[in-house]
Design goal:
Cytidine Deaminase, domain 2, single chain, 5-stranded mixed sheet, about 15% strand, about 45% helix, alpha+beta
């Protein structure tokens, strides 16, 4: 039903204003984002269908717009709204990473990398460059490959670290079609990068592998 037809006490918009967004369910928040329904279905029903299709909010937010648009009644415009929310969340996390110790509070870095990487259908390699106080200087995509392989050149990573005058770096890449577990090649690449960067006094602080719905930290696994 349209928002105006909800019982007054149960309208998500009114409850959000009175009690805050945290008082709403996942489906109600998605319904507010969609704003309107489709022929024969309310915004609330569309929201339930989206969550049913993708399983949870985190999966919905990182889904490709083309995939979201395939849900009947959603379409390209509403899929773009979801993508816009994801990008705003990603940018907010990028701002949170600035000016604070990323090792003392690593959640923002991890969440940023998950939002940025886990929805991609191709493999990419990122680096987050840090100063001597572990504050983020820059986060960049350095290499892009296919679903199964990315060519990562240590010399190029070293050049970018020097360009930013970085003291440390957090590496990240994604596994678009697999689980967040390091392969033998992943571990060998991490060692090679750590050795190359150590020559210019830049320390590899972590390496994240991001897969749909999951991520792994080399530091937490004891692989660094």
């Amino acid at each position: 039903m349209p928002h105006a037809e909800w019982p007054a006490a149960g309208r998500p918009r009114e409850r959000l204003a009175a009690r805050g967004a945290e008082s709403l369910s996942d489906a109600e928040l998605v319904a507010l984002l969609l704003r309107t329904g489709a022929p024969g279905r309310s915004a609330a029903q569309l929201a339930q269908e989206l969550l049913g299709r993708f399983g949870r909010v985190s999966h919905l937010l990182v889904a490709a717009p083309t995939e979201i648009a395939t849900v009947p009644g959603v379409g390209a415009a509403r899929a773009a709204q979801v993508a816009a929310v994801r990008e705003l969340a990603t940018r907010a996390l990028a701002e949170q990473m600035q000016g604070r110790d990323s090792l003392a509070s690593p959640a923002a870095v991890r969440a940023f990398l998950r939002l940025r990487l886990q929805h991609l259908g191709h493999e990419v390699f990122w680096a987050v460059f840090l100063d001597a106080q572990n504050r983020v200087l820059a986060a960049e995509e350095l290499f892009r490959g296919t679903l199964t392989q990315t060519s990562v050149y240590p010399r190029e990573v070293v050049k970018r670290a020097l360009a930013h005058n970085a003291a440390g770096v957090i590496l990240a890449h994604n596994h678009p079609s697999g689980v967040a577990e390091p392969s033998f090649q992943d571990q060998a690449l991490t060692r090679s990068l750590a050795e190359s960067l150590a020559l210019v006094d830049v320390k590899v602080l972590d390496h994240f592998i991001v897969a749909p719905g999951a991520s792994l930290s080399f530091a937490e696994r004891g692989l660094l």
